Write the structure tokens for this entry.
Amino acid sequence: MTDLTRIVTIVGARPQFIKAAAVSRAVTRHNAEAASRRIDERILHTGQHYDGNMSQVFFDQLDIPRPHYNLAVGSGRHGAQTGKMLEGIEDVILKEKPDWCLVYGDTNSTLAGALAAAKLHIPVAHVEAGLRSFNRLMPEEINRVLADHVAELLFCPTDAAVENLAAEGITRGVCRTGDVMYDCALHYAEKARAIESSLLQRIGVEPKSYYLVTVHRAENTDDSDRLRGIFDALSGISTPERPTLFPVHPRTRHKIEDLDLPVSGGLRLVQPVPYLEMVCLEKNAVAILTDSGGVQKEAYFYHVPCVTLRDETEWVETVDGGWNILAGARTTGIIEAVGRATDAIIADWPPLYGNGEASKTIIQELLSGRRR
């Protein structure tokens, strides 16, 4: 056993960088304190999502390490995109010869990284393992299931995730770590607080006086009936006194324009905002409407009611606790769910996602030598 553990971290989208940053900070802390057995982490960005916000400002604002490799794969059909990633990731793994490949979540980058490493007999560790929507029409569901079945270490954010893996016969190498996104929420809270008042003043809203919405999943943006149902609901709940702020994903904006959907006076379409600004908007919303898994959790972290614009969710514990309501995409269902969410008084807020030490636990497990 050498005194150095080498990890190749594979990410491809902005949310994955934010999660990976939490683990990278834990690596830095470990190396500063370790008497022996240090960690050498190499970050590989597949370039799956090009995000204009991922400039130097993004990395500086959030203290995120620059990737050592960028494959610049870009968008494309699932097969072509994943194939390009496999080729590029394989080259990096052969060069770096890591002890572990660390993958996050459920993107095509996750799948490509897991497959490339497994075929080269490099053990895979999967952060956010065990999540299931039980909807195989979602490409994310396919990615996460396949990644879990080749992983040697499976870092589960919740008890439900552990149970999902057990139902598929996976019990060895499973670790209930808590959620690295909760680590991030705690870490960035102070930075977000510093810009909070100036941001709200610039936008022209008061705390707890507006709804916040995000829509980006293909199941909503590529289905005109679903998108129209969501849009009609947003128009129905929005008033000048309680507006709806909608940072619009570029793909969603194109669909809105193609369908010529009307924008009411209380519905405000704005450009996507950086991470810290989004945290501020989430914390101060009266309720959040979203089809994003990450935003559902962030709503819970900040004690804000959430209405999920999907028919199912991986984060079932937020629904069970009353903080999240599944509304689908029907106009009447969404409006009714918003009323329930804003009227409800929920006393309990259990720590469903750990204690903010998920990243530290992940590092300890990677160093332990434990395998499936």
Notes: The chain has two domains: 4-179+354-368, 189-343.
